[in-house]
Amino acid sequence: MIVGRHAISGDILELTVSGGRIAAVKRLEGSSREDLPWLAPGLVDLQVNGWGGHDFNRADIDDETVCAVAKGMREQGIRAFLPTVITASRETICNALSVIAEARRKHAWLAGMIPGIHVEGPFISPQDGARGAHPRDHVREPSCDEFDQWQEASGALVKLVTLCPAADAAPAFIRHARAGGCLVSIGHSAADTADIAAAAQAGAGFSTHLGNGIASTLPRHPNLLWAQLANLTLQAMFIADGHHLDRETLTAMLRAKGLERSILVSDMVALAGMAPGRYRQPIGGDVELSAEGRLSMAGTSMLAGAVRPLADGVALAASLEGFSLGDAITMAAVNPATALGLETDFVEGAAADFIAFHWAPGDRHLRLCETTLAAGRPASPERAPGK
């Protein structure tokens, strides 16, 4: 049994857990007690490239990679996440998809944690800036045939695809992917406003790490940022690590997009959870990880990925003017779960995929005091590397 404060409603709840499920929920009367932990649905991260030295995009990805990243996510309060595979050759992408799918089949506890896979690219802009760290040699036009090949390799686990909608084939690809039950997001794009409108009309419903993966300079207006912020059919994902978007920009974008259409992601890469220092990566080459959690191309100010956990993004978003802890939890747990069709209510019979933590205004981290997340816990979890 655990007693705590609901992070969104503020209600004091007494939860009884049995067999990985919530056996009983009791609302207690009385004023809120600050000594009680906060209770919230487990976080859901739609963009995880790796963690603790393990990378979903390495050519030698294996079963250990998938399990190690998943265990690291669970320790951070993540109930579910989408392993993210980026731009590469057909063979490399399909191999990664098949390895992730096979690990999920082999280890039953992974099924709940990995409801799908995010393929970010290769159908993105070839332009510098918009392309980000994705390898130019493997950027290509959207292909329905290749999408079908991904689904065959993964057992239909590809649930989100990020693409640039500027290509002539983009609308047809979007319709094809949506017909197959896959979500489509706009990202790493140099598209104009007409392309974005056409993509949304075809069925694209998201923007990937909005504000990043674009040219370093843009026209004042119109441009692809305003077009995506203004489009009511697009939900926007934001990296709230303090580096990809400064506080003022993130605040303005969240206000413009609205709470119900905003999602926080980590976009963590393999160096997340590693000690500060200089590293050589298969993608990005020589990079430097600072003690403040900024990962940049060595000797430059250019970002080379994100390393802060989603829980830190919750703490940062909760500290923004006009936003609350409940708002941050909504964006990091409820909205992404809803996008994937996952339940988030504290009700009898539901999976005990909730977290308990302490946090107060000004804190930069959530202090997890108990990550129940019982439904997906491995039978004999060993501590993941990098912790």
Quick summary:
This protein is of the alpha/beta class.
Q: What is the N-to-C order of secondary-structure elements (H for helix, E for strand)?
A: EEEEEEEHEHHEHEHEHEHEHEEEEEHHEE
Instruction: Tell me the name of the CATH homologous superfamily.
Output: Metal-dependent hydrolases
Overall pLDDT metric: 94
CATH topology: TIM Barrel
Rg on CA atoms, Å:
20 Å
Distance between the terminal alpha carbons, to the nearest Å? 28 Å
Named at the architecture level, the CATH assignment is Alpha-Beta Barrel
Would you report the number of β strands? Answer: 20
Structural class: alpha/beta
Beta-strand content bin = 15-25%
Q: Judging from the principal axes of the Cα atoms, what is the shape? A: globular
Given this structure, which CATH class is correct?
Alpha Beta
Strand order of the largest sheet: 5-8-9-10-11-12-13-14
Uncertain runs: 379-387
Helix content: 25-40%
Number of helices: 10
How are the elements arranged and paired?
Layout: E1 2-6, E2 12-18, E3 21-28, E4 38-41, E5 43-48, E6 50-51, E7 54-55, H1 63-75, E8 78-86, H2 90-106, H3 108-113, E9 117-120, H4 144-154, E10 158-163, H5 170-179, E11 183-186, H6 193-202, E12 206-207, H7 224-230, E13 235-239, H8 247-257, E14 262-265, E15 277-281, E16 285-289, E17 295-297, E18 303-305, H9 310-318, H10 325-340, E19 354-358, E20 367-371
Parallel strand pairs: 1-4, 5-8, 8-9, 9-10, 10-11, 11-12, 12-13, 13-14
Antiparallel strand pairs: 1-2, 2-3, 4-19, 6-7, 15-16, 16-17, 17-18, 19-20
Helix pairs in contact: 1-2, 2-4, 5-6, 9-10
